[in-house]
Amino acid sequence: MRTEWRRSAVRTAHVAVSTLVMALGGLVTACGGSDDAGFVQVIQGKTDDPDRLKETMGADSDDFRQERPDIIGGTFALTDDGTFINTVAFTDEASAREGEKRSSPPEDMMSLMRDLTYFDLRDPWFASA
Fold first, then answer.
1. Residue range 69-99, pLDDT digits in tens
2. What's the pLDDT at 33?
3. Of the four listed, 44, 72, 104, 105, which is most buried by Cβ atoms within 10 Å?
4. CA–CA gap between residue 69 and residue 61 (Å, rounded)
5. Residue 115 to residues 31, 86, 95, Cα–Cα distance (Å)
């Protein structure tokens, strides 16, 4: 019963984030979401410079992907008032936590973000079209 509830909650969260990303003309980062993700982190926050954050998030991230092969996808949605939601798909949680120790997001990107809240989805379940 608990597992089914968790799957339903994760599915609802994924649909809500995907809908928000599409409605806001969000960016797809690192090849978008991934049905192969074993762990997804949802990051919600604010920025005082939406245009600069959008530019930074959309910048070529080949170097970062080489540093963080555990990141297999992600999405980013940003409103005009600076509210954003970022999803980051990982192969698994252990790899994600190890990757956090080795490499963090660029300082110029992090300096644009505030009031961050993290939601960890440890058993994501996706239903792609």
1. 888 888 888 888 889 898 889 999 999 999 9
2. 67
3. 72
4. 12
5. 26, 13, 25
